[in-house]
Amino acid sequence: MSEYILKMENICKSFSGVPALKNVRLNVKKGTLHALAGENGAGKSTLMKILVGAYKADSGTIYFNGETYAASEGSIQLSRQKGISMIFQELNLISDMTVAENIFVGREPCKNRLHIVQRKKMIQMTEELLEQFHIHNIKATDKLQKMTVAKRQMVEICKALSQDARLIIMDEPTSSITEKECENLFEIIRGLKARGITFIFISHKMDEIYKVADGLTIFRDGEFIDEGDVKQIPMNELISKMVGREITTFYPEKGCEIGETVMEVKGLSLKGTFSDITFQVRRGEILGFAGLIGAGRTEVMEAVFGYRKADAGEIYLKNEQVRINSPKDAIDKGIAFVTEDRKATGGFLSLSISMNMVMAGLKQYMKGVVVSSKMITQTCMEQKEKFDIKMSSLNQPICTLSGGNQQKVLLSKWILLDPDVIILDEPTRGIDIGAKTEIYKIMCGLAQAGKAIIMISSELPEVIGMSDNIVVMSEGKITGYLCKDEATQNNIMMHATKTD
Description:
Elements: E1 4-15, E2 18-29, E3 33-37, H1 44-52, E4 59-64, E5 67-68, H2 76-82, E6 84-87, H3 99-103, H4 119-132, H5 149-162, E7 167-171, H6 179-194, E8 198-202, H7 206-212, E9 215-220, E10 223-229, H8 235-243, E11 261-270, E12 274-282, E13 286-290, H9 297-304, E14 312-317, E15 320-322, H10 327-332, E16 335-338, H11 342-346, H12 353-358, E17 366-367, E18 370-371, H13 373-387, H14 403-415, E19 421-425, H15 433-448, E20 452-456, H16 460-466, E21 469-474, E22 477-483, H17 489-496
Parallel strand pairs: 3-8, 3-9, 6-7, 7-8, 13-20, 13-21, 16-19, 19-20
Antiparallel strand pairs: 1-2, 1-4, 4-5, 9-10, 11-12, 11-14, 14-15, 17-18, 21-22
């Protein structure tokens, strides 16, 4: 027991009679980073929420630091006192408060019984904490609302460490940060590991698991599958155990020829955002847009789609110049845009799956002034079967689906309009390995059907694996055009880091 900070044995948990965890186990060594791998719904987050007291296990035993640990629902404060802290994917911070205020919220140093907060002392304590862990790009008095996601994660880590956390759980910590910010985060983690802090790391990014993890536990469908040293489990074996089948071709072959130009953009510019953007996309082509976060890729596509108004430039569809002043103009002219943020701009989370599917083309389902529910149901069931969308009912809210199934619904919404050009912004962000392969197959199927596809992605293996040609951007400008044979991570990064 002495080498393990955490042992969880025979943990079971059901929700409304449906098993979520079935006799799973987890063994985490002190001072390591231990990765939890598995598809969405595999039970990773559920197990961690049991550990921190957000849920209560139906049965099983937990040992922390060699002692039996009885976590119960609502005992999150107890888990913190024990030295266990969880940094959720949706960061639990208050934007209009400072770094110091967020770190010590509810625990502010007070002068007397009147509970007058000693702000200078709180700021000093925060500065000492930041210095102790070599975090130099954050100040105690900085407001959270002006911070990047990466810096907010540093604040969450400091908050955990200020409570003397010995075990820190991080759920998808790199899903919304740049590659450079990832490296900074990993460097902080390495330093904390050297001081004896242990991490549990939940991630869908296979390359990151192999870069930073020491140990690994694999779950599938709420069951324990395997555990071991990361170096002893090859990636193809890991993926196979996660999804329960071999994925022989992670990036499928399109098997179609590229045809004539469907859309051409010339000299598109927006002051202070991007300038002189020129490219073309052809029928059957997947054109990748690569670059660091902040390079201007999304902003360019928002201008193409009419969400932003460019200062200059021309857009041609099938050799005819068009004016796009709004998203409605773009949709009417055969352009679709699946945005990167499913929650904020992609779907209507509280509405049903069927309404999310037909929302963009609701007029097609009108009989006079009445919406035909029969037509909607028939169409949506066809899409469900076509894209293998896992759901219990078309009437359930889209927010109840996994990320991969939400993405399939949003793709269906646009495909039902039969567009010529489909823009996909970070199409696999936050979804698991099995769902990624399904999204890739859908993309290839659309290309085979003659659609012109533009894909923005911050994952270099995805850009290289899926694109026929790649446009690379840096600081609002195109800095490179690469054909498939030229596309290597080094080449892309060389162009992505070019500056004037």
